[in-house]
Each structure stands twice: as structure tokens, then as C-alpha cells.
Amino acid sequence: MIIAVDGPAASGKGTLAKKLAKHFGFHHLDSGALYRLVGLGVAEAHGDPKKEADAVEAARHIDHRRADDPAIRTAAVGMLASIVSAHPAVRQALLDYQRTFAKLPPGTVIDGRDIGTVVCPDATVKLFVDASAEVRAHRRWLELSAANPGDPPDEARLLAEIQERDARDRTRAVAPLKPADDAQLLDTSNLDIDAAFAAALALVSPAVENVLASSAKG
pTM (2 decimals)? Predict the structure, then answer.
């Protein structure tokens, strides 16, 4: 049982994925954290994220235990993650890890940018979460301002960074950000987290319940 949740930065996909995993009692993987760990690894090794060799070296030595490290949640590391994720060899290095995780019983929820299209194309159900760039920039501003109230970031700069990252993610040659053909689409621009979760649950529950019912019969 695999629920694939894709979407651009700050669309709410990570929060929704965690809530869906908790609701169904499934395991959760934030695949973006893996790429953030690679980006952080390149930075800590004083490498160049645009050099595939440097990025692959970091991918081979990431410490998955640091997935909750606040250091990987900065805007700077997010940009590094976007750069290293464009390298085909980096994506290949992390692909096996993600697919192995996806097989954990009784089910998994994995969020990212290519879960439904590349990592788990046969996922039980696929959800593509989106929101306008302006809304996503404001959400990121609120998040970063709360974390550092004495030095709030410039929202216009955050918007420019999100638009730049969107363009890079959507146009990269390998595994570009796009909805899978059979993905359920959810726009969270005008939804708070509770409303977004209710909408997401309504979209994925029928498929999950159908598989659970089939398993019970079989």
C-alpha cells in the first residue's frame, strides 16, 4: 500500500503526507529530506552542488538519522537540494532507498516531486498538491519568521527563490516535477491545513479502503 504525494515547495504536501500516514497507521518518508541531506553534505564538504561528482559523493554518505535536523530546513539548503536533485546519478543513488522504504508493511506515504511518476509509478493512489507561488512564498515567510522572529526574511526574495526553484524542478531533464497522469489534484491555495487534510483524505480514502477490503477478502 503506497500513497504518493507530490508537489512543489511549500505546497503543504509534507504536512499532508505526515497526517495521512498517522491517520492510516502507515510509515512516512519525506524524500525531499534525502536531497536536502545531500545538499547539506556537499556544503559541509565544501564541494560544488553543480558538480555531479561532488553531489554523488554526498549522496553515498548521507546520514538518514539527520532527517529531522533543523539545519536541512533552511532556505539555503533547500536551494542546494534543488540543484543536486537535477543530477541523474544522485537521483539513481537515492532511488533504491526510496523503493525499499515503499515496501514496508502495512503501507507507506512518501512525499516528494517524482514519487508518482518515477519512484513509485504503481502506487496505490497518487496525490499532487499545489498552490500559487505567492501563497507558498507567504507560507514559507511565516514559517521562517516564526523560527527567527528577530530577523524575518524578505518575502519578495522568498517568492523569487520559489519561482526559480519551480522553473528548475519543472524543466530538469530527469524526473521533472509534474503530476502523474493518474494523480488526484489538490490546490491548497485557499485552504488551511485542516481543510486541506479533509480534502486530501477524501481523495485518497476510496483507493486505500478498496485495497484494504480486497486484502480482507483474500
Answer: 0.86
